[in-house]
Here is the input.
Amino acid sequence: MTRFLVRRVVAAVPLLLVVSAATFLLVALVPGDAARSIAGRNATPEQVAQVRTELGLDRPVWTQYIDWLGSAINGDLGTSLINQQAVTEQLNARLGATMSLIIGATVVAAVVGVTLGVLGARGGWLGRTVDAASLIGFAVPTFWLALVLVVLLAVKVAAFPALGYTPLGQSPSQWMASLFLPVVTLAVPATASVAKVTRDAVSDAMQRPFVRTLRAAGVPERAIIARHALKNAAVPILTIVGLTFIGALTGAVLIEQIFALPGLGGTAVTATAAGDLPLIQGVVIYFTVIVIAVNLLVDLAYAFFNPRVRVS
Amino acid sequence: MLQGPSAEHWLGTDTLGRDVLSRMLYGISPTASGAAQALIVFLALGIPLGVIAGYRGGLADQVISRVADLALSIPPIIIVLVVIVVSAGRPVAAMASLGVLGAPGLIRVVRAASAAVRDELFVTAAKVSGVSQLRIMRTHVLRRIRGPVVVQASLFGGVALLFQAGLSFLGLLDPDRPTWGAIMGEASTVITQSQWLLIPPGVAITLTVLALGFLGDAVRDASADTDAVATAKASREAASPRTSTATSAALPDPSDYVLSVRELHVHTTSGVPLITDISFDLAAGETVGLVGESGCGKSITALAVLGLTPGGIRIAGGGVYFDGTDLVAGGEAAYRRIRGSGLGYISQDPMAALDPVHTVGSHLNEVLKLRGVGSSAARRERALELLSQVHIADPQRVLKSYPHQISGGMAQRISIAIALAGRPRVLVADEPTTALDVTVQSEILSLLHELQETTGLALLLITHDWGVVADICDRAVVMYAGDVVEVAPAHTVFTAPTHPYTAALLAADPSIEHSGRLPTLPGRVPAPGLWPQGCRFAARCRLATEACSEARVPLIKTSEALSRCLHTDLLKLEKRA
Here is the structure.
């Protein structure tokens, strides 16, 4: 198991290299750069050039990249060009909101989605309802849903705050309240995907011959679904939950904007708008590391649920 | 400004007093073209790379798959954001990059579908006959991947539309063009004054994505193989549960037997008969062989006895009596009481019969718990006892094993142990040795025989192997095209079969000694729904006369047997001659 972990972590290194180098290269192609925005609109070309030299942006891209890489290995992702704050510091401060949002949405999606999927797998009207609901859940744009929820639950009935974020350490109850609407919004499409995949996977498992053996041995239907079909369906379900998490990362960029949550997504948008390379680079690295970590967890979970993976 | 719907402005007006409906219509083009751009890149990359990886395999496959896996771990939003900066907000660049980032998903699907084609016989045949690789890819491979590609494309089209709308909503894509997302972004700024503006773009996006989803589902359903049982309405007549009067008088009282099947009819839900008017009995400790070619309804009979007919198939009439109680009349509840404790079952494919994600011990533990074996220590002890009862040499180790770690023969022993856990009085065994090696076959048969002697178990053995009947059966029930055609004691069926079908099967059996060339039985069993009105075997029968085809033949009692034949006398004479 340790060897598996080590191998996977080592395999992640080239991915990080590729992604960071690609970002660097892409941003280097930008015609206008951060120097221009820092120097201001009315700056002369000379002034811009000076800012550029000060920031080291006039050096060749590869030199810049190697430099960045050198300090990145030591955990230093540089400083923001716009506000001179350390990138890691700035991003760590915003990690809490994003992770609360994404983990919350994924947990809700996994629990509700699997429950609905199992109910749907029994077929009949319930199955058709789950099918229809998951189709609609997938089709509704999250940002629209967010606005509708804000109108209904924050503006018309002031049940939840429409905007802002209270950190967990400050007040757990307000933390929950501030996350409620964003998490629900983000969880709806995710729940739809999880429910659909669960329904299909559990229905498939119920067609397998061992189910007949169990039925013939008198095992009740409920136990067959809970102990056997669901466990056999675990691999596709875990896959979709992992994908859901990655999808929630994308959704978070929108949701954080709408609900004014101080998270990584918002940083990503503002940093891209300002052409703040170190900050963009930092967000890319954070996002990629999160994805790698989730994929690793999913792989470990595969091994837990599927004995054949464990052996090989 | 900001008016609701009216006769003049069907969808109201926006912040600048512009007509929302016309802006929505005008927004179709940039919205749809954004999604289309992503989709084109998605397909242009995904299909060729997927086909090459799947169809060619080897190094190309390794490189493509590795890169695709890598790309799947990049969160698309962040790359698209970077591209937006680089391209100064040009929508084409953003949507194209989304297409690139989505392509690995399609590559995986196409790769799997085309790899499956590569190994198929017709492709090998085409290669051997010199058809060029390119042509094979174009004709065979493309035809196969069409279905999955359309499904993936419709899903991705929805994703791209939502993505495009989201980016426009944030004002990141060319904010001056009125895409649906941009209209909604505008609506969000005046949300406290008017909520109506949210409705048109939201509904439009949702319905479009839904439509794409439905399209994908429709294509998937259309490309899936639809089982053509529909051909069979033709002769429903022949099989309605009414022809039984001729036999019922001769049948013994079910309460004398541990298991009695009476005039059992099983149909598909669309009404096609699969078995008709099946009756036989099983006494305590007795072994009855249910014999016949494939497709005669043996397995369906076995499953109906257990009340476990698969979906789309139901018991249409008759009864299954266990200890004199009719399970069919009692419904699922009656069956549930008897399954496991009264009736046990072992299947044809022992490896598939065990749940691959549970250990042998977990299987036994679960079943023993149901039987009320209290403590886990007691269950473990009983599990070990059951395993040694089925002659498993190293029960301690096997308890901890998963199904993929044991052999087929051992898996069948474990299936038997699971079935025995509830101390059933009848064991239904559906071709228990078919999937096993010849040496293992006889071991399993002798195990079954031994268990019968030690526990008094009655055995209903489904088989097409006369050797098995000769070895352990007391009686044979011969089935043909959903009918019982002969019921005879094992000691007379070999020497004096009373039905021409039995005689023909015996004559064609290689395990029985023959003088000269082994005769074959020409023709095949007619499919359900295509059965003739009279004797169903008539078309293949040497002795058939016109009378055979006129009306349904009843089971007729001969000295030792029951036979559904008008010419038992002829058969007897022939044998003697």
About this structure: Chain B touches chain A through 73 residues (CB under 8 Å). Confidence is low (pLDDT under 50) at residues 225-249 of chain B. Chain B has two domains: 20-222, 235-342+464-509+520-577.
